[in-house]
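User: For documentation purposes, I need each entry recorded in a consistent format: the amino acid sequence on its own, followed directly by the corresponding structure tokens. There are two entries in this batch. Please keep commentary to a minimum and don't merge the entries.

Assistant: Recorded as requested. Entry 1:
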Amino acid sequence: MKQIKKIFIITILAIVMTACGNTSATDEEVSISLTITDQTTNTTISDDDFTVQSGTPLLTILENNYDVKVTDDGFLTAIEGYQQDTDESIFWTYEANGEMVNEGIADYEVEDEDHITFDLQVIE
């Protein structure tokens, strides 16, 4: 009986120690800035700073802080009432740290000091 008790205690301690030492980068808070502009009217819609968990999808940040519309396919179509117009070739684009991003907003996970810019603009 003592042997079973010892094994049980050792097992519990191992589980607790593993759980305590298993912190991931997603537990870290990071600072990002987010600028949203309408290039067709030279309007700044928003210019905000956020503190979020590292690895948070960009779509989650948008949905938690703005009125956004996204298609079932994950394409952004409107922010705060500013809507793309496919007939006029006006679309939302976004950059992270000055570079165009080639992945959807649901897949982009933010990192510390990211500066993200959304622009509603004519794409020719």
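Entry 2:
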Amino acid sequence: MIASDLDGTLLRGDGTLSPRTLRALRTAENAGAEVVLVTARPPRFVDRLAAATGLAGTAVCSNGALVYDIGRRTVVSSRALSVAVARRVATAVAGAVPEVGFALETGNQVLYEPAYRLRLSEDIDAELPVPSLADLWLTDVPVTKLLAWSARLDADTLLAAAREGAGAAGREVQFTHSGGRGLLEISASGVTKAGTLAELCAGRGIDAAEVIAFGDMPNDLTVLDWAGIGYAMGNAHPAVLAAVPAHTVSNEEDGVAHVLEGLFGPPAAP
């Protein structure tokens, strides 16, 4: 199995999948490998990528909260974050870290309160404001992630402050970040990319030793550590480069393709 993150890993900085990398993925599939996308992104982003590239198969989305059948556009399994837990964590974090805004990711939409001012141009159609922070907790839609955003703090600093400030409430969730601008991602306790990928592999009879993983950010560390071999991208976060022994070149240099071509031979013809 080839398990790859998307942003900063499989995709270039402009969000595209290069022809070389797409050919390398096809070559690996033709050799019998399954390609699984393992991303912080929600299914709606994977749908757009699939439409542009023809990628199919399975994606582990929202940092492990969802398993998504790309071809059928169907969520196969999910591990939701309780809104009550999200509220307790947000209340604790807000009390410890001033000027933090919050949003709820549902897989289909991002519900955000006024203090959450992060806007993603590629996701604008899915962003839905609510009048106040209190209104955020009234949703009856299953939640995949609580998002916390700071205009003042970078993601690493916000992550450390939120973990400390959350106190006992922090034991009910999983904190991480994927390099977004001052953006912290909070999932249900025990939800990680590696945990969900391991369950997926177990159902397929695939051992960790048979998995080759690629990633660049702290939310990828669980997968890079669990897989038989994990590759940190040349552009990876310093903590990832320090923790992961195997490195490849950057996403802009088609680092994933660089490794796959060495393993599976030259890419198939365009």
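Summary note for entry 2:
The longest strand covers residues 100-105.
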